[in-house]
Write a structure and sequence with these properties.
Elements: E1 2-10, E2 26-27, H1 29-37, H2 56-69, E3 89-98, H3 101-115, H4 132-136, E4 145-150, H5 156-163, H6 186-190, H7 204-209, E5 215-223, E6 228-229
Antiparallel strand pairs: 1-3, 1-5, 2-6, 4-5
């Protein structure tokens, strides 16, 4: 259902424009429905244990390809969330696949419900669909199932692996308020990542200026349904 990768930022000088480009935002009731179903694991005792096997040998090249093709390096360091970031690329060190039978079962159930919707959904494309990983995966195009990135603090990835993404844990300070945020750009998700050595309580500026160790980034299967582009 989801994969997290460990990566390091690679300092590389590149020219970029000082003009900030606003990122697209999407709101979709079917997507929220699907994501809310993943919360049940936090409400009832877990029926199975989540595991995160190391699948680096199988997926590292595919993930690196997705990271590079969706990275907009010319915008890194521009804007409030990306302020003073200096790296220009990323190198994948390891890939772990999140295997949580509870969350996967509920996700598949919601996808089945969406798939039976009369009239279906209009086709919608995102950058990750151009990557080899999307072509090799069994994504359901009928409901616009896609891979998207989610950036968060290093230790929060472990919690998400066990209980899933929960909008009740989100902050109200987001651009669109409390909710779950995803992006088709690896470089955008990286703006919200914190390094292992800086810890979860370290001010964001410490990560923004210098990243001394590994970072984690989530690649998540998401059901878009009918996306609303603002």
């Amino acid at each position: 259902m989801a994969t997290f990768m460990t990566y390091v930022s690679s300092p590389k000088r590149m020219k970029f424009s000082s003009k900030m480009r606003p990122h697209k935002t999407r709101e979709e009731s079917d997507l929220l429905c699907a994501l809310k179903h993943t919360r049940f694991a936090t409400l009832v005792p877990p029926l199975a244990t989540a595991t995160t096997p190391n699948v680096t040998a199988q997926y590292r090249d595919l993930i690196q390809d997705m990271i590079e093709k969706t990275c907009e390096s010319n915008y890194i360091g521009i804007g409030k969330d990306s302020h003073r970031l200096t790296h220009r690329s990323f190198r994948v060190k390891s890939v772990h696949q999140i295997q949580n039978p509870n969350l996967l079962r509920d996700y598949q159930h919601c996808k089945s419900q969406m798939g039976s919707r009369p009239g279906g959904y209009r086709k919608f494309n995102v950058l990750t669909q151009k990557c080899a990983l999307s072509n090799e995966s069994e994504l359901d195009r009928r409901v616009n199932e896609v891979y998207l990135f989610h950036g968060t603090r290093y230790n929060v990835v472990d919690k998400i692996s066990k209980v899933g993404l929960d909008d009740r844990e989100s902050k109200t300070a987001g651009l669109l308020g409390r909710g779950l945020y995803f992006t088709e750009n690896s470089s955008k998700a990286d703006e919200y990542v914190r390094c292992k050595d800086t810890g979860d309580t370290t001010p964001k500026e410490v990560h923004t200026y210098h990243c001394p160790s590994d970072c984690r980034l989530l690649i998540v299967r998401v059901l878009l349904g009918h996306p609303y582009v603002a």
